[in-house]
């Protein structure tokens, strides 16, 4: 098993006043050649957007874009006709494909929103753009993995890649195993809240570990913890 550790303190970032962003991988004006991607995982941004702030309409292509609100509500509109708001417990996915335009704004004028936005390289390029979102019951991720994005799980949002996103809320002292779904894939474990150990490494809030060359591994919660597992092909880009 190979493990790469990405401490939260080593993430890049940008503060534009209305937006305070932290980047796990090279993004915008921040570039780290050692952190360009983890397999097909290209971007993991931890964004805080002030009330009334947001991103005007802009274009994407040939990328799978997953948005996970942690606090607050995000208003969305795109060129496929998708429109609405997503909140904590919701997951949103866009297949940018041949090209899509969308805007994202804090749905509140006064309260901040905190969200994770994740970009994954697609399996097939130039597909018809698509948008979807779904609300997931948080009780269904207590001490177990709740699959929220997958190419073949009926209860999950579809993704144009042999990839899987799963969330868990672990009680202190609990241990959970992750079994790799697609042979040869790696798994990027991101600690949303709490503290864990993985492969004898201790991780805290917003730390991450990329695990590859393994069929599975275990995670132990040192305290109550919220985790995101992003499983992706270990492609070279």
General description of the model:
This protein is 0% helix and 53% strand. It has 237 residues and is mainly β. The mean pLDDT is 95.
Provide the gyration radius in Å.
Answer: 17 Å
Q: Given this structure, which CATH class of the largest domain is correct?
A: Mainly Beta
Query: In what order do the strands lie side by side in the largest sheet?
Result: 2-3-4-11-6-9-12
Helix count from the secondary structure assignment:
0
Q: What is the level-2 CATH architecture name of the largest domain?
A: Sandwich
Principal-axes geometry comes out as globular
Distance between the termini: 21 Å
> What fold name goes in the CATH topology slot of the largest domain?
Jelly Rolls
DSSP strand content: over 45%
**Main pleated sheet:** 7 strands, antiparallel
Low-confidence stretches: none
* Overall domain count: 2
Q: CATH homologous superfamily of the largest domain - what is it?
A: Jelly Rolls
Question: How many β-strands, per DSSP?
Answer: 21
Amount of helix: under 10%
Average pLDDT works out at: 95
Taken in chain order, the helices and strands follow as EEEEEEEEEEEEEEEEEEEEE
Topology of this protein?
Elements: E1 2-6, E2 12-15, E3 19-23, E4 41-49, E5 54-60, E6 64-71, E7 73-78, E8 83-87, E9 90-95, E10 100-106, E11 113-120, E12 130-135, E13 146-149, E14 164-170, E15 175-179, E16 186-193, E17 196-198, E18 201-203, E19 208-212, E20 216-221, E21 225-232
Antiparallel strand pairs: 1-19, 2-3, 3-4, 4-11, 5-10, 6-9, 6-11, 7-8, 7-10, 9-12, 13-14, 14-21, 15-20, 16-19, 16-21, 17-18, 17-20
């Amino acid at each position: 098993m190979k493990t790469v550790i990405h401490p939260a303190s080593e993430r890049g970032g940008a503060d534009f006043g209305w937006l305070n962003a932290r980047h796990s991988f090279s993004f915008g004006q921040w570039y780290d050649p050692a952190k360009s991607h983890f397999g097909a995982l290209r971007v993991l941004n931890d964004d805080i957007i002030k009330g009334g702030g947001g991103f005007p309409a802009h274009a994407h292509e040939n990328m799978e874009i997953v948005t996970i609100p942690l606090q607050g509500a995000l208003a969305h509109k795109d060129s496929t006709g998708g429109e609405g708001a997503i909140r904590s417990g919701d997951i949103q996915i866009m297949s940018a494909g041949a090209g899509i335009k969308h805007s994202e704004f804090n749905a509140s004028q006064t309260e901040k929103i905190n969200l994770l936005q994740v970009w994954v390289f697609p399996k097939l390029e130039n597909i018809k753009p698509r948008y979807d979102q779904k609300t997931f019951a948080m009780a269904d991720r207590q001490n177990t993995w709740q699959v929220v994005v997958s190419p073949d799980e009926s209860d999950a949002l579809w993704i144009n890649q042999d990839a899987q996103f799963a969330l868990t809320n672990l009680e202190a002292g609990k241990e959970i195993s992750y079994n790799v779904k697609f042979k040869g894939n790696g798994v990027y474990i991101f600690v949303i809240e709490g503290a864990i150990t993985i492969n004898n490494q201790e991780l805290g809030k917003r730390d991450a570990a990329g695990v590859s060359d393994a069929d599975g591994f275990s995670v132990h919660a040192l305290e109550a913890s919220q985790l995101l597992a992003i499983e992706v092909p270990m492609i070279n880009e």
